[in-house]
Write a structure and sequence with these properties.
This protein is mostly helical. Helices cover about 70% and strands about 5% of the residues.
Length: about 350
């Protein structure tokens, strides 16, 4: 039982990332009908928003501290972050420590602006083109974005730590009545799961309970009829593209302490996220979220040593095996609308 609970917990954080990226992919496909292969790059851009904020907050200047001596016996030069000089050592140190959560405030407008620029500048010209054209142009855009990141930040992963308050692990075993140190789970992975839950709940609430969201859902069901009512549905769909970009970016921001950002991390998640969308059902938001968590947990179980001993390499292909089984037995996916991908 303890091993099962541990693998479920391990699968939740990766499943959360899959669900958030797949949610944005499904929003774009459901509203605009675009297969966006640049969506993984948006996840990567969000992660580097956190890296940028962390670096900006850590900028410092040198001062001479006569109370400290270097190895030659001269007064030592000490680097003092500007933030600490402006707000004091305690407040400034806390701001630097909480750089990743504070990056959310920076990432939201940046990612919305990037989403708007992508949609208005490039993707809108491919709405009526075949999906193959959309895939080629968005995949090319993803490569361009990752090479830009590689140019400015380098090819090596950049460690971006979580706040000190969330370092360490929580002993779930004691909470559930097991022996101590049986089920240990990092605090930040719990934070990421809760954060993903809040974002997913916020997106669904926005679509379900706001007038804007209701119009968007109506446009997803029957775009022409909504347009005939005098509603500019195109502007609302553009706004949804910006929202999807923000969701992917926030997923990347909060994932940085779990996986150090690198220029190809978007590609690592992209293909898996498309598999998640197909398994959940093309255009189905609940299906994307459910499939994200399901496949994340299955991947966690497949990574157990005894499972890999029985079926070597199963942890690398389990998601694709599940996708094949689902598509052979239910081509529209777990929650896809009847008739979708069933021709």
């Amino acid at each position: 039982m303890d091993a099962i609970l541990l693998q479920i917990l391990n699968g939740l954080d990766k499943g959360s990332a899959y669900a958030l990226i797949a949610l944005g992919l499904t929003l774009i496909f459901g509203t605009l009908g675009v297969v966006n292969f640049a969506h993984g790059a948006l996840f990567m851009m969000g992660a580097f928003c956190a890296v940028t904020v962390s670096r900006l907050l850590s900028l410092s200047f040198e001062t001479v501290d006569p109370t400290k001596l270097d190895f030659l016996g001269n007064p030592a030069k000490v680097k003092t972050p500007y933030v600490e000089a402006w707000f004091g050592p305690e407040a400034g140190g806390a701001i630097i420590d909480w750089a990743v959560p504070l990056s959310i405030l920076f990432a939201i407008p940046i990612m919305i602006a990037i989403g708007f620029a992508m949609e208005r500048g490039l993707i809108k010209h491919f709405y009526k083109r075949p999906h193959a054209d959309q895939i080629l142009v968005t995949f090319g855009l993803a490569i361009v974005l990752q090479e830009i990141i590689k140019l400015f930040y380098g090819a090596n992963p950049i460690p971006t730590p979580a706040p000190d308050a969330f370092k360490g692990s929580f002993d779930f075993g004691v909470l559930l009545g097991f022996d101590p140190n049986v089920i240990i789970y990092p605090y930040w992975r719990m934070v990421y799961f809760l954060f993903a839950t809040v974002i997913i709940g916020g997106v669904f609430s926005f679509l379900q309970f706001t007038t804007f969201g209701m119009v968007v859902r109506a446009g997803m069901a029957d775009r022409e009829t909504v347009g005939l009512l005098g509603i500019d549905i195109d502007k609302r769909f553009t706004a949804m593209f910006g929202l999807a970009a923000a969701v992917a970016g926030l997923a990347g921001v909060m994932y940085t302490p779990i996986n150090s950002p690198n220029y190809h991390m978007g590609m690592d998640f992209l293909v898996l996220s498309f598999v998640v969308v197909v398994v959940g059902g093309m255009g189905s938001l609940p299906g994307a979220v459910a499939a994200g968590f399901l496949l994340g947990i299955l991947e966690s179980f497949a990574s157990m040593n005894w499972v890999k001993d029985i079926i070597p390499g199963i942890d690398q292909i389990i998601i694709y095996v599940v996708a094949i089984i689902i598509l052979l037995t239910r081509p529209r996916g777990l929650m896809g609308r009847k008739g979708v991908m069933e021709d």
